[in-house]
Automatic annotation (TrEMBL):
Biased composition (Gly residues): 414-432, 544-563
Classification via PROSITE patterns: CBM2 (PS51173), PROKAR_LIPOPROTEIN (PS51257)
Signal peptide: 1-30
GO cellular component, one term: membrane
Region (Disordered): 409-434, 544-567
Keywords from the UniProt entry: Carbohydrate metabolism, Glycosidase, Hydrolase, Polysaccharide degradation, Signal, Xylan degradation
Family to which this protein belongs: Belongs to the glycosyl hydrolase 30 family.
Example of a GO biological process term: sphingolipid metabolic process
Listed name of the protein: O-Glycosyl hydrolase
All residue ranges annotated as the CBM2 domain in the record: 564-652
Length: 652
């Protein structure tokens, strides 16, 4: 993407909200939107934008807050994309805004290189394309991993690492030329070195599958890629079944619909259509180009633009971890709808109306229930305008959407969540205290998986080819294992995570995996979501009282669970290492109030080494015990609430 300075006259943002009474009867011409919670598609990883520091001025603290905060007048982004400068001496520029987005708002970071250092390339230049020379494959990997280590050690853990920006574009600024074969060869040579750091490729200009099909069709190369990323220049969002069938997430990592002023409504509303198309195409994430620009989500004066409010119709309410569910996609001419399910059976419906007239819709929930929907709309005259509350009758509500608008309907939550998309076959262990949800998919749709607690089978399922939640409730206690039992050609299982009494345990954080293929043998690897052979992943234990127990991750590599603390007043803490190097490590903390009432919390955690920095908390260390308490805004946890914004780094 060219990084020129596009400037247009600003149109002032309108921050007022229009409250509209919502006591409408069923309209004879209303179109039905059937929303089925048992039809599940992709997990939403988030929505984001590019921090252009190094090319343009960095985001200020206030601008980070407006982009990544989720309060009034804020967009609710959850992903920050940043550039990897070929000069390591400039890496410090990336820290301030990213650290604030991560520490204050739990954003995740995608790091993208536009070019390797010049000496590694065929043209000995960082611009005008040029290929990465094969003799520098290892040095280039060192360069990328050094960036990840540097950022992690400064409080900015890298969630995903891209290998190259727009390998099919040959401009007169930072760039490099890669082919599909180049990606395959690089992954075969260097892919195993990235460990638990998620690898994204190929970020081609227009989601050109010629750059990703080769490595997806090479099993040895494909195992080293977690995310297939691409841009939308010269194309429109389209499903990518090959990537999904290989168990890869699909991210749209850069686009601008046009460079006209972001507050011009006729130029802004195409973003709503593109966001809908991206979600309907099974994309897990959508990332805009520069966050702050005349055409950006924030204008140059730092105010939220119309494009920003359009993004917020998704990003504020369809949060990371939500799952897209079945919905009538085009109930009326000019109207496009997607629907999502979140925690506590909360449902979100987003409707884009590009027609010139008001449209009436009947929202009908199937295999789900809710009591009401709250309406928020953005149009030429509204910015996330509150549109009242619709009460459901017989699981349905008649609603309306304004012409040329995007509208989000948010349910009250805690309704019926359907059957979680899977047949909960087998012995469920009774009606006990422990609820366990396993999120997984197969590559062929014939894979058989068992869930065992303490050696007893409590669930048996035959998987489909879409990520689906499978749940059991049991009074059994002991070690939790997810086992693949019918390995055959074309059959593999991908386990995203399990949820134990509301606490998530990621599969890639577990050291005990006897079914992943690695080092030329079954069970020869660890820290993987994959079961390639008959085998199982151990997820630690469950004790029958809370989601505590122990997660079995080790401390070797990124993401290992290294310890936990249980303190007075029902406060627990889990520590997850997100980065390690010879002289130290960085870790995230998850603080949970497991009591039945609000608590002003503090926690003592056993740690290794000497803590040198901690963010979003007050801390002290005595020996190998780290004492942590909250700041003014985070000192009190409600019953069942978790705090995930605290982390620290330590020297060994």
């Amino acid at each position: 993407m060219i990084r020129g300075f596009f400037r247009r006259p600003d149109i002032s943002s309108v921050f007022g909200a229009l409250a509209v009474a919502c006591s409408f009867s069923m309209h004879a011409m209303a179109a039905d939107v059937n929303i089925n919670a048992n039809t599940q598609y992709q997990t939403i990883r988030g929505f984001g934008g590019m921090s252009g520091v190094g090319w343009i001025a960095d985001l200020t603290n206030d601008q980070v807050d407006k982009a990544y905060g989720n309060g009034d007048g804020q967009i609710g982004l959850s992903i920050m994309r940043m550039r990897i400068d070929p000069n390591s001496g400039a890496w410090n520029q990336q820290i301030p805004a990213a650290k604030r987005a991560v520490s204050q708002y739990d954003a995740i970071v995608l790091a993208t290189p536009w070019t390797p250092p010049a000496y590694m390339k065929s043209n000995n230049s960082t611009i005008n394309g040029g290929k990465l020379l094969t003799q520098y494959y290892s040095a280039y990997t060192d360069h990328l991993l050094s960036f990840a280590d540097y950022m992690n050690s400064n409080g900015v853990p890298i969630y995903a690492m891209s290998l190259q920006n727009e390998p099919d574009w040959h401009p007169d600024y930072e760039s490099a030329d890669w082919s599909g074969a180049d990606f395959t060869n690089f992954l075969l040579s260097q892919g195993s070195r990235f460990g638990s750091l998620k690898v994204l490729a190929p970020e081609s200009l227009g989601f050109n599958h010629a750059y990703s099909d080769p490595f997806l069709n090479d099993a040895s190369a494909a195992q080293h890629v977690d995310i297939v990323g691409g841009h939308l220049y010269g194309t429109t969002p389209k499903d990518y079944p090959l990537a999904r069938n290989k168990g890869k997430e699909i991210w749209m990592t850069e686009h601008i619909t046009n460079t006209e002023a972001a507050n011009d409504w006729s130029n802004a509303i195409p973003l709503a259509t593109e966001l809908h198309q991206s979600m309907a195409a099974n994309f897990n994430a959508y990332i805009w180009w520069y966050i702050r620009r005349s055409y950006g989500l924030l204008t140059e004066d730092g105010n939220v633009s119309k494009r920003g409010y359009i993004m917020a119709q998704y990003s504020k309410y369809v949060r990371p971890g939500y799952v897209r569910i079945g919905a009538t996609e085009m109930p009326q001419s000019g109207v496009s709808v997607t629907a999502y399910k979140g925690p506590d059976n909360k449902y979100v419906i987003v409707a884009v109306n590009t027609s010139s007239s008001q449209q009436n819709l009947n929202l009908k929930l199937q295999n789900a229930s809710a009591t009401s929907f709250v309406k928020y709309s953005t149009s030429s005259s509204l910015n996330l305008g509150y549109g009242g509350t619709y009460t459901l009758s017989n699981n349905a509500a008649s609603v309306w959407v304004e012409p040329q608008s995007i509208t989000t309907f948010v349910s009250d939550g805690n309704g019926d969540g359907g059957d979680n998309g899977g047949d909960n076959g087998g012995d469920n262990g009774g009606d006990g205290n422990n609820t366990i949800v396993v999120r997984m998919q197969g590559t062929s749709g014939e894979e058989s998986v068992n869930l065992t607690i303490g050696g007893t089978t409590v669930g048996t399922w035959t998987l489909g080819t879409n990520m689906t939640d499978y749940s059991v409730t049991t009074d059994l206690t002991g070690e939790i294992r997810v086992a693949f039992t019918n390995d055959a050609t074309g059959r593999d299982v991908q386990v995203d995570y399990i949820v134990v009494n509301g606490v998530v345990r990621q599969a890639e954080d577990q050291a005990d995996n006897t079914g992943v293929w690695g080092n030329s043998t079954c069970g020869g690897g660890s820290y993987s979501e994959w079961l390639h052979c008959n085998g199982s992943i151990g997820f630690g234990g469950v004790d029958g009282s809370t989601g505590g127990g122990s997660s079995s991750g080790g401390n070797d590599g990124n993401g290992g669970d290294t310890g936990d603390g249980q303190n007075a007043d029902g406060i627990s803490a889990v520590m997850n290492i997100n980065n390690e190097w010879d002289g130290g490590y960085c870790a995230d903390l998850v603080i949970t109030n497991e009591s039945n009432s609000a608590v002003t919390w503090s926690v003592d955690i056993p740690v290794e080494g000497s803590v040198n920095s901690l963010w979003n908390g007050v801390w002290s260390q005595q020996g190998d015990v780290l004492h942590v308490s909250g700041l003014d805004w985070s000192s009190v946890l409600e019953a069942g609430e978790s705090l995930t914004s605290i982390g620290f780094c330590a020297d060994r």
